[in-house]
Amino acid sequence: DYDTCLDPSKVNGSQCVWCDAQIGGFCFPKEWEGIAGKFLSCEEPKEVEVDPEDEQLNIDPSFLSSSCFKVGLKGKSPDDCRAAIDDKTGENCIFCNAPRLGGIGLCMTSEFKGNE
Length: 116
Prior knowledge:
single chain, alpha+beta, two-stranded antiparallel ribbon
């Protein structure tokens, strides 16, 4: 499909172009764009500009000493994490899943709520 074709991480790192055939489309290696473009309407992935301000997480490293983080380091389950109480705020910890890292997760303080 279109999104898979234009995402190098989903096509073994290859650079591809999507060529529309009006009844669907085709994913071709970037090198074929000149030939395929004679018959079809092709497009490359669009460059996404990232604002350097957006890349900064501004995370206070003190969460590393929290009881929540320590629960996660002991290999507890997501349910154990959610039941744990942060020793600084008295709030329940939250489990943050990291799908890009194979689904592993971290037990974090409530300040990360909404980012899980």
